[in-house]
Amino acid sequence: MAPLRCSPLALLAVAASAAGAAADGTFNVVSFNVAGLPEILQNNGESGDKTTNTALIGQKFAEQGFDLIHVQEDFNYHATLYEYDNHAYRTATSGGAAIGSGLNSLSNYDWRDFTRIKWDTCSDASGSDCLTPKGFTYMRWRLAEGVYVDAYNLHADAGTEDDDESARNANLAQVSAYIESTSPDAAVLVFGDTNCRYTRTADNIDIFSNANNLTDVWMHLKLNDVRPTVEDVCANPAQSETCEVVDKIFYRPSPLLSLTPTNFSYIGKLFLSDPTNSSSTLSDHNPLYADFAWAASSTLRSSDFLGGPHGTAFSDVGALANLSSSPSPAGATLSFSGAERLDAVGIALADGTTSFSHGGSGGTAVSLVMGSGEYVNNVTLCQDKYNDHTRIFYLEATTNGGNSASTGTIGSDCLVSVAPEGWGLVGFWGRDGDEVDMLAAIWAPAS
Fold first, then answer.
1. In Å, how far from its chain's centre is CA 220?
2. Scanning 39, 102, 127, 412, which has the fewest C-beta atoms within 10 Å of its C-beta?
3. Are residues 350 and 314 in the same domain?
4. Are residues 12 and 122 part of one domain?
């Protein structure tokens, strides 16, 4: 059963259970540069007109029902793409060429905190990359209750002139730094048009593995993690799965969530206007497809998030995962402070060495000291607006023994999260500054 979102009055009589939350599953992803620049600027050498081709792409997206699609160059034919697609969750366009980034996502699952980020650096040395505000997008993609993957879509600078390489290096470094600051301890997917090849060392595509611990699904499944040293450029559609394209899919598991890629394919043959004619491609890029299996951890799990995308990201997950023994929620001391809003939150585990605190220094302090077999297994949060920022206004924690403490003001939008049976609170992750902007509970088994 999903955690309950409710009005303040409903809080008086609500009961919820997370015991039935999904613990494992599968999903698939697709990355596709859909060649949506105006035909007068770039016809891509494809058969058929771009409106017709885009309509066919949208139809095939709908027919195949892919779970998460990242598209690039979705510029002037965006309305046609969405007219023929039927995914439940889709990003709004940022505009046509010269206005928008061309980056959009279509999904069977909802997300939170979708953000568009423009490149700090671009180059027109080999083309017109600075013509439109290319960049990358970020979303926290929700697969199930408390199960999130931070998904990034990107379109890096093209070309191989020195200025192009310099700009592309800066692009990848910008994404890498954003992952470090925004996705600490989170499972991560990065996929899109990198304009990189492993045989071009100046591209520095290794930054994702070296700095962010990401793995290329294609190289992992098709090349046994051996980096290619001889250029083998794919035809369109690709005739083998060991040739290379500039589009990539990277992944990273987390202490909360295992991610295992089970299949990788170039699926250009699905995107032909005439299935019997391999030259009837709908774009000049091969679309990429990957299957994943996921499983929630047996030692650490998350509640759903509440709050807004402000402040600085924090996470207790990594520290909890690195403890010499599994963290126990029993006998912990929960501390928080607040007045009109939640100013700070903290927890000290009974091991005597592990404690965490987040937020600012304001508000009135409240504490909840638990006995040796007692732990928090129910957390209620409420959010509201302050200075146009969504923040956590209210926190109430209740133990398995029925004791509780609270602070802040019950707002208009509340979330009740209940730990899995026999699990309790050991930490948090979210975003903070002088107050708490976003929050989720981290649960661990009590024994």
1. 21
2. 412
3. yes
4. no
Q: How many domains does the chain have?
A: 2
147-155 vs 188-193, strand pairing mode: parallel
Query: 211 in helix, strand or coil?
Result: helix
Q: Are residues 30 and 81 in the same domain?
A: yes
Residues 189 and 328 in one domain: no
Final residue of a domain: which of 269, 296, 323?
Answer: 296
Q: Which domain holds residue 414?
A: 4-18+303-445
Q: Encode pLDDT of 46-98 as tens digits.
A: 667 899 999 999 999 999 999 999 999 999 999 999 999 999 999 999 999 99
Is-contact 70 103, C-beta < 8 A?
yes
* CATH number of the domain that residue 431 is part of: 2.100.10.30
Would you tell me how many other CB atoms lie within 10 Å of the CB of residue 400? Answer: 19
Secondary structure (3-state) at 117: strand
Secondary structure (3-state) at 113: strand
pLDDT (tens digit per residue) in 301-321: 999 999 999 999 999 999 999
How far apart, in whole angstroms, are the C-alpha atoms of residue 140 and residue 91?
A: 13
Query: By three-state DSSP, how is residue 221 classified?
Result: helix
The pLDDT tens digits for 218-275 are 999 999 999 999 999 999 999 999 999 999 999 999 999 999 999 999 999 999 999 9
Q: CA-CA distances (angstroms) from residue 375 to 12, 14, 61, 303, 371? A: 21, 20, 46, 16, 8
* 168: enclosing H helix or E strand: helix 162-182
388-415 pLDDT tens trace? 999 999 999 999 999 999 999 998 799 9
Last residue of a domain, one of 234, 261, 296: 296
100, 207: one domain = yes
**Cβ atoms of 446 and 329 closer than 8 Å:** yes
Give me the residues paired with residue 414 across strands.
Answer: 6, 382
CATH label of the domain that carries residue 58: 3.60.10.10
Predicted confidence at residue 48, as pLDDT, reads: 74
Q: State the Cα–Cα distance between residues 106 and 125, nearest whole angstrom.
A: 32
Torsion angles phi and psi, residue 231, rounded to 5:
-65, 125
What pTM was computed for the model?
0.95
- CB of 8 within 8 A of CB of 414? yes
Integer Cα distance of 322 and 426 in angstroms: 13
Cα dihedral 114, 181, 318, 257 sign: positive
Gyration radius of the chain over CA positions? 24
